[in-house]
Design goal:
Blueprint (H helix, E strand, L loop, with lengths): L1 E3 L5 H11 L2 E5 L3 E5 L2 H10 L5 E10 L3 H10 L11 E9 L6 H20 L4 E2 L6 E8 L2 E7 L21 H10 L8 E3 L6 H10 L21 H8 L12 E5 L2 H13 L6 E5 L14 E4 L12 H15 L4 E6 L2 H7 L5 E7 L2 E9 L5 H6 L22 H8 L62 H4 L13 H11 L1
Helix pairs in contact: 2-7, 3-4, 5-6, 9-10
Amino acid sequence: MVAKTFQGLEEVLRDELIALGAQNVETGTRMVSFEGDLELMYKANLCCRTALRILKPIAKFSASDTDELYDFVRDFKWEDYMTAKSTFCVDSTVNSPGFPHSKYVTYRVKDGIVDHFRDTCGERPSIRLEKADVQLNVHIADTRVTISLDSSGEPLNRRGYRVEQTEAPINEVLAAGIIMLTGWHGETDFADPMCGSGTFPIEAALIAGNINPGIYREGFAFEKWPDFDSELFETLYNDDEGERDITCRILCGDKDPEAVRIARRNIKAARLESNINIVCRPMQEWDENENPGGILVTNPPYGERIRPADMDILYRQLGETLKFHFQGWNAWILGYKDEHFASIGLKPSVKYPILNGALECSLREYVLFEGKYNDFRADGGSVKNHSREETPRNNRHYKSEREWEQETRPYKKKFTRDRRREDYPDFDNRGEYRPAGKSFTHRKSGDAPGQYRGSSSPARKVTDKGPRLSESSTAFSSPVFMRTRKSRFSKREDKETNE
């Protein structure tokens, strides 16, 4: 299986999967591959804080162009995963000179699936962009093609507790990953003086309480799969034995009253009101953080979509607030531009490159101490964090052709034919339909208009008035039983009532 994530969080996700019992875990760029059973796939969707999607590969092969890709897809035994009555969608990621456009790859894969069912049963499945019965992911690197089932459905960052948001909120998965990069697990106090929608404090509370982030979601894509084990998933979903009481203080605030209102709504939706203290106050006026040794994590504006009047003043005030109001704490700032970090006026102890959407950002730690730096050094203190690597290493091994051949071997039995285009006598070399027994060739300059070479009859005129699918065929969704999900909160309330 493959777990997708943000660039810079691969090592954190690797450790999460190992803790869940994954085997043969290997990191790559924005992904981690691993092996496990059905239970592990359910756990990965429920428990991983830094995973965006969990993919289950079902086909691996080599293709040099989109025609060859089409042939492989058309030969695949799709009956094992869907029917002609199912709806499906395809998402493609392409990094190959032979496949210059990911959208065309998506179209060819869709065509192959539709034509497969037309060949085998005379019907075609329908395409649905949202909430399809089967969601497919196509990944192409050079000539190596991997087609996977997306077990998550909606990206896992869509936890379900964010009912409202401010402008440019941070992604939930990225927020959780940043907190986990700091090494914080709820042992000390936590603060975010510019909390916006409240994502950092909510993710911090989930980490401190060891609460699975997937419990808020309405569902996952694997619940529509034919092999879905509802009893196993219910057991995992309702297992709260690992949860713990939140003993640290989680502080957050914002100077914008509207942002505070939105954050309060999200905190309430996550049922964490009793664990998170929120105030409407400028960061310069913070005075709640009297306990030393805490962690501050915040994401100030970058000046891209949110434009404060003077970014230098904002970051200078941030530096002053850190130095005079958070002495004895460690502060982690996610920023975009070096000149903004320079305005903070403090020396970072470590830097992590983080990709926040399309922006190449930096996560920097600041060790905050009392008094002068020379006195701090004289007492044995250091702002350099030697226990952390500034740039996590990517130990992804690029497979040789022999290794790739061995990896694709188990999937070959899922194809109906070993040969390619010659198995389709009704299709020419360009993948276009040509009725059996006909030998039409393209008209050249010497031929009469409307006539094919080798034929005395005029060509059939093609108009835009073709057959139309009925409304019932354009968007058909297979009926799927959806259980009544019992959240951990209602479960506890039922337990207290019975007692």
